[in-house]
Amino acid sequence: MPVHRVELTGKATELLRALEAQHGPVMFHQSGGCCDGSAPMCYPRNEFRVGSADVLLGRVDADTPFWMSADQYEYWKHTHLTVDVVPGRGSGFSLEAPEGVRFLIRSRLLTDDEVLALAAEPPPATGAELEG
Questions:
Q1: In angstroms, rounded to a whole number, what is the distance separating the alpha carbons of residues 49 and 72?
Q2: Where does 6-48 have alpha helices with state H?
């Protein structure tokens, strides 16, 4: 079975689908910047420009890309991330802000087996591959 670096909880999946119904295809990006930049931000897919060093952690709910800045990836590359939803407002930049909830990350260390499986795979894609 493939190892997934990022997944959604049931609540996050429900919210993601509602946002897609309202806004069309979306994407996640986690930058590690100020304010809520360390939280996963959800944007319309074609309205956020991925940087050349950003890392594609995977796709959630079948086809929604989850990107992370290279600096954040260095901190989180040994973890499995779970996107969840909690009450409260984030910074306001993410699509869920008007809903009175916000996405957040829950993490755990990858198991030894997951680390070995990921080491056998090609490295994650980067935004540079989109530019070519």
A1: 17
A2: 10-23
Closest CA to 109 of 88, 130, 86, 79: 79
Place of tokens 């594609």: 56
Amino acid symbol at 129: E
Q: Record the pTM.
A: 0.92
Q: Where do we find the tokens 């070519």?
A: 132
Rg for the chain, CA atoms, rounded: 14
Q: Is the four-CA dihedral 86, 79, 52, 131 of positive or negative sign? A: negative
- Rounded average pLDDT over 55-80: 94
Task: Summarize pLDDT for 25-54 with one digit per residue, the tens.
Answer: 999 999 876 655 568 999 999 898 999 999
Q: Which residue has the tokens 């590690």?
A: 32
pLDDT above 90 (res 91): no
In the chain, which ranges are continuous DSSP H helix? 10-23, 70-76, 112-119, 128-131
